[in-house]
Amino acid sequence: MERWVMLRKGADFAGIGKKFQISPRLACLIRNRDVVGEEAIGQYLNGTIGDLCDGMLMKDMDKAVEILREKLEEGKRLRVIGDYDIDGVNATYILLEGLKRLGADADYDIPDRMTDGYGLNIHLVQRAYDDGVDTVLTCDNGIAAAEEIAFGKDMGMTVIVTDHHEVPFEEWGGKKQYLLPPADAVVDPKRPDCEYPFPHLCGAAVAYKLMEALWESMGRDSEDLDDLIENVAIATVGDVMDLKGENRIFVKEGLQMLERTRNPGLRSLIECTGLADKTISAYHIGFVLGPCLNASGRLDTAKRALRLLEAKTRKEADQLAWDLKALNDSRKEMTEKAVKEAELMVEASALKEDRVLVIYLPDCHESLAGIVAGRIRERYYKPAFVLTNASEGLKGSGRSIEAYSMYEELSRCKDLLMRFGGHRQAAGLSMKRENLESFRKMINDHCTLTPQDLTEKVVIDMEMPFSCVTEGLIRELALLEPFGKGNTKPVFAARNVRLMDMRVMGRKKNVLKMRAVDANGNTVEAVYFGDVENLSGRKDTLLSITYYPTLNEYMGQATPQIVITHYQTA
């Protein structure tokens, strides 16, 4: 059973509507997204690239720019070291493009997920030194690589860190002592001494800010880097950043650029995934394009995704795009198999009674453990850890629910773990094989989650009769896009709804089309994706539903309809 919660946030909706030429209903939805004050509302509705803050406000940005200017003038060899996920790959590409367009002698390296692990390591630093690299420039990593950076410095290299992760700290006498790495410049908006107004950027956005600042310091027009905003947008959505403030502007602008992209690799990927004639949304980045770019870092090497972004010819771009799509199709099949195996394990054992699920899948590819844990978390609405075999015992990932801090709970079991890290919602861990059952018992013994915590919360923006589902409203809702984490699609509700004329559609028989009639007798076309068998059995039952209005465009005709997202007996 889900907990349905109605948002009730007050404001002068009529006044806001009048000032910004929007309906009071839209003003209410904007307030529900915690956008408060005329300046914030104005930026939310009309923000452009011109509203982004100056990157030079970031701590150490001036140092990083000055060092890079000197290195460029001296013709020194530079190496960008990124990371293997979608943010790291796009950040690497942004730095490479920005530097090469200035004539820099620059190349890149990216760690291998399986052999190197995350971020900078001694092996990568040594390789840079052996290759005659003068300056290492990190992106999407480096803030926690103090030892590796010290190693590079001892060998005479210059190191610049650009990152967006939390700065490591130790607690002394109840106070946090932050531990910055010994790099020549550390650009990270999460530094406690950084006064940049919006610290929630992804690694690619920080990289873009650095290149923008460098170009301007060299008397070049930074607008010539605008095409790289599409890479910032891909990374922001792919790394699941909150779509607020500057992130929202980057994604909004980047999506428009993506539809007419001049990047041959992205153009080929858009075509081979069937998006060529579609309006590209944040959803398409999150669930179509992004997984293809991430698949290379999971199952092969992230360098393949970077080669796609760097492709210069149509032939090369097409080949790489189809390779990445095939890799992602393979990743999807492997994921589905692992999810089914995990569900069977839970259903057929005492695991189902646990409040924290610890699932051992010996044959699951270790790079898929986090995806599988996320799917299991969704299915059971419980924190879930998925562990698989690794070279040294077991390795895995966890995904959490709102009321459970994964990192804190792992800290309480640290004596059973070899390594762990992460944050409230997600974590990675490794342990000796013989500690598996002890870990499962301890993590559950420490668990304080209540039955209410383990009940999924459905947050509703407002009750709205079907008579309000008009083409005008639906087109106005588009002003709230792009949707994603931190700026979710509005959720509307209606009570005492009767569903009529149900018919199952779709190749996989997982779509239900019908007419929905509300308590006032208003009728609207409706569609539902999911467990259609269960809903189709409610034909003569009065239901409460949550829904989102859309336009069904067919043969040039646009008809309002609703997508039902949740339902329960009224």
UniProtKB/TrEMBL annotation:
Residues 460-565 form the RecJ OB domain. The keyword NAD does not apply. Pfam families: DHH (PF01368), DHHA1 (PF02272), RecJ_OB (PF17768). Residues 79-235 form the DDH domain. Keywords: Exonuclease, Hydrolase, Nuclease. One of its GO terms (biological process) is DNA recombination. The keyword Hydrolase applies. GO terms for molecular function: 5'-3' exonuclease activity; nucleic acid binding. InterPro entries: DDH_dom, DHH_sf, DHHA1_dom, RecJ, RecJ_OB, SSDNA_exonuclease_RecJ. Residues 354-445 form the DHHA1 domain. SUPFAM superfamilies: DHH phosphoesterases (SSF64182). Belongs to the RecJ family. This is Single-stranded-DNA-specific exonuclease RecJ. It comes from Merdimonas faecis.
